[in-house]
Amino acid sequence: MVILQALTTFLALLTAVAGAPSALRSIDRYAGETTGRHIVILKPGALKANLINRISQRQVITHEWDAVMNGFAAKFDEETLNDLRSSVDVESISEDGIMHIMATQYAAYSQASDRDANERLS
Description:
The structure is a single chain. The protein has helices at 2-19, 48-55, 78-85, 106-121, and strands at residues 27-28, 34-42, 61-65, 71-74, 90-97. It is of the alpha+beta class. A hairpin with a 5-residue loop joins β3 and β4. The longest helix has 18 residues, at 2-19. The radius of gyration is 27 Å and the shape is elongated.
């Protein structure tokens, strides 16, 4: 009787542990404006094709990288994003932020204006 009770308890605990969801990886948030996409970086040696084939039924991959990093980007629904967050093949997930770069060369503009003004005066 004790053995049966211990076996039942063990099986109940095993079922609870096996059925428990795995920890979800956090998403690196971007402080500014985003595109709505997420960038997924895979661990070294992970097969990107297998993961993409699994999720491409639900999502359209917008970008893929091989040379610099092993990853891809897409707009994911919540279910797919959670699937990726729990995958052992995923190293990181980041929001795709929008960055703006602007530069003005004031000195060159100023010098050109001075030169043009001097030529007109002579």
